[in-house]
Write a structure and sequence with these properties.
The structure holds two protein chains of two kinds. Chain A has eight helices and 16 strands. In chain B, the strands form three sheets. A nine-stranded mixed sheet of chain B has the order 11-10-9-12-8-1-6-7-13, sandwiched between helices. Chain B has a two-stranded antiparallel ribbon with strand order 2-5. Classes of the chains: A alpha/beta, B alpha/beta.
Chain lengths: 328, 272
């Protein structure tokens, strides 16, 4: 095991891993930029079973090298198995930066890798830069959405986790690189997956929606979501909600907000949502925010581009008709 | 320490890790500097950890003969939070209270928790919140599992105990997994798992007789060099929101809707 006193020397290069392919490409986009700035190399870690077909794609999207670990024991994500592979790579190649995709599986992986390497970890970085001393600086939302923290490292490796859609994948280019196939001893999992069911969510992920019409406690009953559905149809958008409607009333399976889905649509229409800071933290990256609320003092108006004080039951049908007219 | 040795005997002891967090709903910002005023803000039990404690209590209610110990690592007085935990139904509260813990990071926190858990010993289940209300890092539970070499199940929204094993339902981005592990095991719970109870006056009074065990870092024999932070916070600022804040008003709903539709078309955010 690496000792903590490695300090800031010896380490070189960037290692990136996510078990989610799209997120991996987004990390390679950002990773490429950081690697060029630091004049160092970017390696992608490709782990799984029969996954070699993706190796060259990772190079096209920015990796200089791909460490390929292909093993039947890695077919499913199991934390101990994946951790042993990443720890082995990190201990042998001593990267100065490790990027890990911040999924429900990826985050515990990053935390345990950082612990095994006695390293620091900055989770869920929405921005990544390098300071004058060459240290990685991560920015993240904290204190329930009340603050953005800028954090850096005192030692290497510098491990950060990267949320989905925080960064853009780079353009696919005709680049060449090295694919290095490695035979790594895989640790036995300590838990057993008894069953895995695909989640019953709408076929399109809300993170990918360009238009979102969201409701909050101002919606009187579950059936009334039809008002939002109709507007969504006109705008080719999706319907979302704030946390109370999902967690307390159980009308929806998931919600938009800091603890739910963080979204960045072109248009976000918040209907009957008061705008607590945790909700706002989830929609901060929307291009245009519209708020419709009966309470003229609702905090949502402070973070909206367009505010309408009024009854959503009247406004939404009228807005639907007006948009139909405008859009022809 | 009894973990991992000898014949199993079903679930006997649960340790719940509880963080005293900044109450983020009561934070204020210094309007001149944009700095967040964290120091003076009220504290409370981190929500996710409260769900973990509630789940422990529900397991105990089902199985009977189970002890629930809570464990808190803090550089500030946390009595009120510990009393609340005892009132909810914990049997005993352990706290590592030491001003030297002020600047530790998630690794340091996990070290102290791990050493305290070893000192308490004899546990079958460690329950943690998936993340914390204030820093929202979500790293400590996983780091603790690593330090204690425990099987770990995170993002848990349903939990059941079956003999010497647990079965937990995990909510992933695109799937729901059912995962089984032999105890001892560390579980990280989401807020969906339950609705924490509010202790009655009777429970609060009964809890005043329950024991709070206070340790310092020295009591645990933690090596000081293990507690140095690996990260450095450069600044914590209130995020700037630059929104247009245009109120759309009109004589009637029709006029308002027309104005809003027009504005959205002009913004280029509707239509193809």
């Amino acid at each position: 095991m690496l000792e903590g006193e490695d300090g800031m020397s010896e380490h070189e290069g960037i290692l990136a891993f996510s078990e989610t392919y799209d997120l991996m490409l987004e990390m390679l986009g950002k990773g490429r930029e950081i690697a060029d700035g630091l004049h160092t190399s970017l390696a992608a870690v490709l782990v799984g079973f029969n996954v070699q077909g993706k190796a060259n794609e990772l190079i096209k999207y920015g990796a200089d090298k791909v460490y390929l670990v292909d093993n039947q024991a890695l077919e499913q994500f199991q934390i101990e198995a994946y951790l042993s592979v990443l720890h082995n790579l990190a201990a042998s190649y001593k990267p100065e930066i490790i990027l890990i995709g911040s999924t429900r599986n990826g985050k515990p992986l990053a935390a345990r890798l950082a612990t095994r390497l006695e390293a620091g970890c900055i989770p869920d970085c929405n921005r990544l830069t390098v300071d004058e001393q060459g240290r990685l600086v991560g920015e993240r939302i904290t204190y329930g959405g009340n603050a953005a923290a800028k954090i850096t490292f005192k030692a290497k490796p510098q491990i950060v986790t990267v949320p989905q859609r925080a960064f853009e994948k780079s353009e696919r280019k005709d680049r060449s690189g090295q694919v290095i196939r490695l035979d790594v001893k895989v640790e036995e999992p300590k838990t057993r997956i008894v069953e895995s069911k695909p989640l019953e969510v709408s076929s399109v992920r809300i993170e990918d929606a360009e238009v979102i019409i969201s409701c909050g406690r101002g919606l009187g009953k579950k059936e009334d979501r039809v008002l939002l559905d109709e507007l969504a149809t006109v705008l080719c958008g999706q319907v979302g909600c704030s946390r109370p409607l999902a967690e307390d009333r159980k009308w929806f399976a998931e919600w938009v907000g800091l603890s739910g889905h963080k979204v960045k649509p072109k248009l976000y229409i918040a209907c009957g949502i008061s705008g607590v800071i945790q909700h706002v933290a989830g929609i901060r990256d929307a291009k245009v925010i519209v708020a419709i609320n009966k309470d003229e003092n609702a905090p949502i108006f402070e973070v909206a581009d367009y505010g309408v004080v009024g009854n959503l039951y009247e406004i939404l049908p009228a807005l639907k008709e007006a948009l139909k007219k405008q859009l022809g | 320490m009894r973990i991992g040795v000898g014949r199993r005997r079903g679930l006997k002891r649960i340790i719940v890790c509880l963080k005293q967090a900044v109450d983020v709903s009561q934070l204020r910002v210094d309007s001149a500097t944009g700095q967040l005023l964290v120091a003076g803000a009220p504290r409370k039990m981190s929500d996710f950890d409260k769900n973990a404690l509630e789940e422990a209590i529900r397991v105990k209610e089902k199985l009977g003969d189970v002890e629930i110990f809570t464990l808190t690592v803090t550089s500030e007085d946390a009595k009120a939070v510990l009393r609340e935990a005892l009132a909810m139904g914990a049997d005993k509260a352990y706290v590592v209270y030491d001003s030297s813990l002020k600047d530790i990071d998630t690794l340091g926190t996990a070290y102290v928790l791990a050493e305290a858990i070893k000192k308490i010993g004899g546990f079958d289940l460690v329950l943690c919140g998936e993340t914390s209300l204030d820093s929202f890092s979500g790293l400590v539970g996983s780091r603790l599992a690593e330090l204690l070499s425990l099987p770990q199940i995170s993002s848990v929204r349903k939990l059941s105990v079956e003999g010497d094993a647990v079965v937990a339902e995990r909510a992933l981005e695109d799937a729901v997994e059912s995962v089984k592990a032999e105890m001892p095991v560390l579980i990280m719970v989401t807020r969906e798992i339950n609705q924490p109870r509010i202790p009655s006056l009777m429970m609060i009074m009964k809890a005043s007789k329950k024991e709070i065990v206070t340790w310092t870092v020295a009591d645990l024999g933690v090596q000081k060099n293990k507690l140095g932070s690996k990260i450095e916070v450069i600044e914590v600022l209130a995020p700037k929101t630059e929104r247009k804040k245009i109120r759309i008003a009109g004589e009637n709903v029709q006029e308002i809707a027309d104005k809003l539709a027009k504005a959205l078309v002009e913004e280029g955010v509707v239509g193809r």
